[in-house]
Amino acid sequence: MKNFKIAQPSDFKQAAHLLAMEKSGFYPMAGGTDLLDEIKNGIISPEAVVDLSSIPNASFIQTEKNAVHIGALTLVNDLIESSLIETSYPVLHQAAHSLATPQLRNVGTVGGNLCQRPRCWYYRDPQILCWKKGGENCFAYAGKNKYHAIFGGEFCFIVHPSDLAPALICLDAEVLIATAEKEKKLKMADFYHLPQENRRGETILEPGELLKEIVLPLPKKEEKSIYLKIKERSTWDFQWSRRLLRENFPEKGSMIFGSF
Ligand SMILES: Cc1cc2nc3c(=O)[nH]c(=O)nc-3n(C[C@H](O)[C@H](O)[C@H](O)COP(=O)(O)OP(=O)(O)OC[C@H]3O[C@@H](n4cnc5c(N)ncnc54)[C@H](O)[C@@H]3O)c2cc1C
Q1: What is the CATH number of the domain that holds 231?
Q2: What is the pLDDT of residues 131-158, one digit of tens each?
Q3: How many whole angstroms from 229 Cα to the centroid of ligand 1?
Q4: Is the distance from CB of 217 to CB of 202 less than 8 angstroms?
Q5: Is the beta carbon of 118 within 6 A of some atom in ligand 1?
Q6: Pairing mode, if any, of strands 183-187 and 210-217?
Q7: Nearest Cα to Cα of residue 192 among 122, 125, 117
Q8: Measured in angstroms, how far is the CA atom of residue 76 from the centroid of ligand 1?
C-alpha cells in the first residue's frame, strides 16, 4: 500500500473544495470500510484521503417541517437504533438491518453505503483492468456473471451493492449534494446512472461533489413497506461467498479475498 496524506476538513464546503481542486488524486472517506479495502487491495492509490468524519454535526436523524433529514455521516447502525426509522420507514430500517455485519454497520455510514463501489469480482481484482477501471472490456459479459445485471449493460454489467439505495428510492427520498460553491437537491432515483462511455462511476457525483444529507418525505398514513432480500446464506452475503469464490476462481480461491 502506498503512503497517502490525510486531510481533515471542518465542513462539507471545505471538503468539496479540496476534492474539486485535486480531482482524481483525492478521495473522500467516511467510515473507510470500503475505501480502505480498495486502497489495501491496490484498486486505487490516492494521493490523499479527505476524511469526512472530521466534519462536526454531520451525523443526525432529525425531523424538520415536512421531512426527516439524515446526515451522510450517520452510521448504518443509527438507522437501526432509531425508533423513528423503525416505525415510520420499515423498509429502510429492515434494509439497514439486512446489510453486512454488526461491526460494519457500526462503522459504515449512510453516505458511504450509497457511494460504495461495485462488488464485481473483476473490478475487485487488482490484476484485472476491467472497463470500470479504465480498460476496454467488461469481462462479466462473457465471463462469470451470475450476479450481474441483465438489462442496461452495454459497457459494464455491475449492479450497485447498496441495500439502502432501493429502500430510499421507494420512499421517494431526495439527496442533498454539497459542492464548494453551493448545495443542490435531487431525487434519490436520479442519483445513479447506467454505465456510459464517458461516465465510469455509478453516481452522478462529479469530482468535488459530496453527498451531504438524505431528505425523506414524512410517511403517509396509509403507507406500508417491507424489505425482502434474497441471500444464499443467512449471515452477511454480498451475493458472493468463499464457496462461490472457490467455484469461480478455483486457482486463486481465498487468496485474493482472504479477508472474507
Ligand atoms: C464484508 C462486507 C459485507 C458487506 N455487506 C453489505 C451488504 O450486504 N449490503 C450493503 O449495502 N453493503 C454491504 N457492505 C458495504 C458496507 O455497507 C460499506 O462498506 C459501507 O456502508 C461503506 O460505508 P463507509 O462509511 O465505510 O464508506 P467509505 O468506505 O468511507 O466510502 C465508500 C465510498 O463512498 C465514497 N464516499 C463516502 N462518503 C461519501 C460522501 N458523503 N459523499 C461522496 N462520496 C462518499 C468514498 O470515496 C468511497 O468510494 C459490506 C461490506 C463488507 C466489507
Answers
A1: 3.30.465.10
A2: 999 999 999 999 999 889 988 778 999 9
A3: 18
A4: no
A5: no
A6: unpaired
A7: 117
A8: 10
Contacts of 175 (CB under 8 A, 6+ apart): 114, 185, 186, 187, 188, 191, 211, 213, 214, 215
- Does the Cβ of 71 fall within 6 Å of ligand 1? no
Facing residues of 215 across strands? 69, 174
The residue range of the domain holding 225 is 57-118+159-259
- Residue 144 inside a domain? The answer is no
Q: In this structure, is residue 148 part of a structural domain?
A: no
Does 87 fall in a domain?
Answer: yes
Domain count, the chain: 1
Decide if 142 is inside a domain: no
**pLDDT digits 0-9 by tens, 189-224:** 999 999 988 889 999 999 899 999 999 999 988 889
Residue 88 CB coordination number (10 Å): 18
Single out the residue of 109, 93, 73 nearest to residue 212, CA to CA.
73
